[in-house]
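explain this:

___
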Amino acid sequence: MRHRLRLGGLSLGRDFDRLWTAASVSYLGDGISMSALPLLAASLTGNAALVGLSGTITSVPWLFLGLASGTLVDRWDRLRVMWIVDGVRFLLVVALAVTVATGHADIALLLGTGLLLGVGQTLFDTASQATVPTLVAERGKKLEGANGRLSVSQTIGEQFAGPPAGG
């Protein structure tokens, strides 16, 4: 018996359910970093400009790499990109946490980590959106429903649930 998540009467399949779950966790992590990085920066420096920069540093890669990320994701195995990118981002966060816990963190390390997390976000988000049509067998309503679910998860993770959790 195959597991199928049903929301709104649509069954989108096991592969989409996996993508949706993975992307939702990733989006939540992005939202957490939106508030956690500036709070950590405020504890590392009294420079308001650097604290402000720490809050926007993860968005900077979208300006310079957004289009390139789309091109690269179209040429690479999208699922592999998502696995590798989120694995690297996980290791970055763990390394930052260890550095903070041992008292060796500084603002440059925080900003560099934030920048790399943002680069990963451009690749992951682009790959997750581009993967939907290949995982949803039928077009039309099912594709719209799948895109809608992914977009809602992104909004909830990055803007609603993640920032308070990071704070």
